[in-house]
Amino acid sequence: MSYEVTATRRRPRTFDQLVGQDFVVATLKNSIASGRIAHAYLFAGPRGVGKTSAARILAKALNCPDGPSAEGCEDYEGSEEIARGTALDVIEIDGASNTSVNDVRQIKDEVLFAPNSSRYKIYIIDEVHMLSNSAFNALLKTIEEPPPYIIFVFATTEIHKVPATIRSRCQQFNFRLIPPEEIKRLLSEAVTELGVNAEEDALAWIAKEATGSLRDAYTLFDQVLSFSDTNITLAGIHDKLGLLGLDRLTTLTEAVSAQDTAAALAVIDDALGAGVSVERLTIDIADYFRTLLLVQNGVQRESVLGMSIDRIPAGIRSAFSRTQLELANEIVLRLYRDIRYSVNQRFDLELAVSRLASLRDYLTPQELVKRIEDLQQELLHEESYRQREGEAPQRGKQQSATPQPETPQPAAPQEPPEPPQPAESPESTPPETDTPTVSPETSYEGITADQVEMIVARFRSHRISVAALLERARTWRRAGSDLIILFEDDFGVSALEPDRDEIRTIAAQVLGVESLRVRIVTEESERENAEPTDSQAEMVRRVFRGEYVEGES
């Protein structure tokens, strides 16, 4: 017997053998069992998922000698011809080769004749979307009202190209991609049938490369089997098919995580010297970083990863953050899109690898802001510590001025020592406090320094950056229900603007008022608002760039 490829040898022959199409199988079996048989079916879906096989199984079930059978018939005369597509009453037409209206006219003439030996005359038109508009229009009447013994089954991979007038006359079934787990299971059965050995990782790689198409998986399996003899291994697949290989990918990623650009470029040079194409190498790198990203997000299913998670070293799995892996995938995918228009594909590949080597230096804007805030808090704590350290000697000096009981007083011991004199000014003795206070240059109008200090202290516990900004204010002014905080420049005004509501709430609590309006402005803007608004005087001031002064009467 001549050699038969795996895809043909293992083609489904009954509804139960169709894999991954539970909805299609259940609907067709129920319609046949209940006798609700349509005159036109439209099977749509990706390549290699069983559309043509389902059409042949449907034809066998409808022409079963014992009546249409939902379970299908395997032993009656003519069933093998239907399964192989050579039956006289089951006509298979390639839509890509018969696109003209003349081909459709031939079909219209043939439908007038009853089937030779079967119950139904069934037309299976594959890739029906390739028909021309004229051919589709010629089919409309025939599809809508065919003879009772005629059934049409259309198959297409591009349902959007089929006119709506055709789709509305057919029962439409959408075929799905087959899960990698099912493909791997079927490959294992094929390996057992042939009596060969295969690694689980090798079968998982084939299932992943098939991208949901069982026919593609069988075709790739036959190719791998042809050079693997009786032992299929993942290493052999990488070596024979010109792939980068898991060991090289691991070495490359280790060099990238260590920011060793020279070592990473050496791996690329070695792979290109071994005959791996730039395009294939880019695909393998993208697939490896995709796997790392999935692992970082908690995915552990081997069918999704395409390999066992244990084959990736633990150090590499934790070397990058999720954001860095997303950036790595973006770099590699952009490389794949650009190499087709590249002047030198190798240069683009080396540039991308060099960028990957600096991946660990990448920070998101959120991480950058967090680091700035941490540094700001460290600086504020350091400044607070310096202030406390500076107060300690002054307090010690002040205490040393007080007479000590152990030291004898040479002059007039009979007189009691004089009490220590208070400082001449508040500025001479800093307050003894463990927390930084507002700037001594700050002025207060209608509000006391203690009240301001209480407001600032509220923020030191949870918003130290806001507290530091409030300490830089030059003037605190309270006028009625208004609290005005003045700064020398716009920095403090713009930085505190998002926190205005929180400042208002805390200030109202400290001042003991129910409603309070807070204005955070610069001294210049406040001065301009207070100046007269005489238009002529304003014009003179702007022309001469001067300021208003009080004149003598």
User: How far apart lie the N and C ends?
Assistant: 125 Å
- Give the spatial strand order of the biggest sheet: 2-3-4-1-5
The CATH architecture classification of the largest domain is: 3-Layer(aba) Sandwich
Q: How many domains comprise the coordinates? A: 4
Helix content: 40-55%
Number of strands: 11
Uncertain runs with pLDDT below 50, 5 residues or more? 396-404, 406-417, 419-437
Structural class per helix/strand content? alpha/beta
Biggest sheet overview: 5 strands, parallel
Annotated CATH topology of the largest domain: Rossmann fold
Q: What proportion strand? A: 5-15%
Q: Supply the number of helical segments.
A: 25
Query: In the CATH hierarchy, what is the class of the largest domain?
Result: Alpha Beta
CATH superfamily grouping of the largest domain: P-loop containing nucleotide triphosphate hydrolases
The chain-level mean pLDDT equals: 81
Q: Tell me, what's the shape? A: elongated
- If you compute it from the alpha carbons, what radius of gyration comes out, rounded to the nearest whole angstrom? 42 Å
Short description:
This protein has 553 residues and is α/β, with parallel strands linked by helices.
Describe the structure.
The protein has a five-stranded parallel sheet, with helices on one face. It has a four-stranded mixed sheet with strand order 8-9-10-11. The protein is built from 25 helices and eleven strands. α5 links the parallel β2 (90-94) and β3. The protein has helices at 6-9, 22-34, 51-62, 79-84, 101-110, 133-144, 164-167, 180-194, 200-209, 214-228, 234-240, 246-257, 261-273, 278-296, 302-305, 314-317, 322-338, 345-357, 365-400, 449-460, 464-471, 490-496, 500-511, 523-530, 535-544; strands at 40-44, 90-94, 121-126, 150-156, 171-174, 197-198, 231-232, 443-445, 475-479, 482-487, 517-522. With 553 residues, the chain is of the alpha/beta class. Helices cover 51% and strands 9% of the residues. The protein has four domains: 6-174, Rossmann fold; 180-240, Helicase, Ruva Protein, domain 3 (Orthogonal Bundle), CATH 1.10.8; 246-361, Zinc Finger, Delta Prime, domain 3 (Up-down Bundle); 443-530, K homology (KH) domain (GMP Synthetase, Chain A, domain 3), CATH 3.30.300.20. α5 runs parallel beside α6, α8 (180-194) packs across α9 and α17 (322-338) packs antiparallel against α18. The radius of gyration is 42 Å and the shape is elongated. The termini are far apart.
